[in-house]
Amino acid sequence: MNARKRMAWLAATAALGSGFALAGPSAAHAGAAPVSVSPATVINHSCGPRTSPSKVSHPYDFVHTTIGKARIALRNGNRGNTEYYWARITGGAVGNTVWLDWADTESGQKIKSWHLCGPYKIHSGHDNYTLAVNYVYDGVRQRHFRACGHHAGVTRCTGWE
Fold this sequence. Notes:
Blueprint: H1 3-16, E1 21-22, E2 35-36, E3 42-44, E4 50-51, E5 57-67, E6 70-79, E7 82-90, E8 97-106, E9 114-121, E10 128-129, E11 132-134, E12 141-151, E13 154-157
Parallel strand pairs: 3-9
Antiparallel strand pairs: 1-2, 4-11, 5-6, 6-7, 7-10, 7-11, 8-9, 8-12, 12-13
């Protein structure tokens, strides 16, 4: 991670509170333990192979979590023969953020570090979204995703999908 992105990351984590604890399982992962995250687990601020969610057909909420009235959703859709995932916050407030974490693993490997696509801030209204990152599975490597958001002083992520 270059120095400018590292400084942006440190500023974002400071704004979210010390320790940067991400908690809150998705509806599909009720009862999952909170996840502790440190800046060292982020590989870089990259949306990788990406596209605009507005160019993706048949989008839907794959999983979600809530923070008060805000909904943080991991969304899914297709563009051509490629499947994409992105994060969206709805019901938020100006200044709230949303981001997408994505990681590539080999079969049976645990997720230890990931790319962070965002954060994207709500500048007006109540909603915002990240760029969409393509899904990969070749029988050995698989791409995993989770949506994260910050609202009303609380940070939550869906489970890894």
